[in-house]
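Final report, Chapter 2: Outcomes

The project's central promise was a pipeline that accepts a single protein chain and returns its three-dimensional structure in a standardized token representation, suitable for archiving and comparison. That pipeline is now operational. To close this chapter, we reproduce one record exactly as it appears in the project archive, with the input sequence first and the structure output second.
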Amino acid sequence: MGSFGALLIVILDREYTYKILECAYSVYNELGPGLLESIYEEALCKELFDKGFTVKRQQIVPVYYKGSILHTNLRLDIIVDDKVILELKSVSEYKKLFEKQLFTYLRLTHCELGYVINFNVERLKDGIHAVKNQLETYIE
């Protein structure tokens, strides 16, 4: 396949994630900022589903600690096609901690990519933060 095949995969991945983010923009353009996170979550799930994605909302994920499963589960806002985690926010003050939390979710689920999407912003592009499941992402 060579380097051309690898390049094609990258292009397809970008197109795939672009389509996911396009759904978030559609929701934002329709509803605007300032609503509850749960409203954006429901609308985004509908938009993703209508575009042909497999969507899991409030997905329960078991958490293991030292080989034992904990009684308290993790709930993820949205998982798209069992590949991409969307952590939604509607906050006036964004914190980098949200990205570190998403990194932990990616590590626990073995997903490679996630987005923190804060809908409470004047321009949605300022509210979208990509996080990859790579250790070097958070080594400072």
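Archive annotation: Confidence is low (pLDDT under 50) at residues 1-12, 135-140.
This record, like all others produced under the grant, will remain available to the consortium after the project formally closes.
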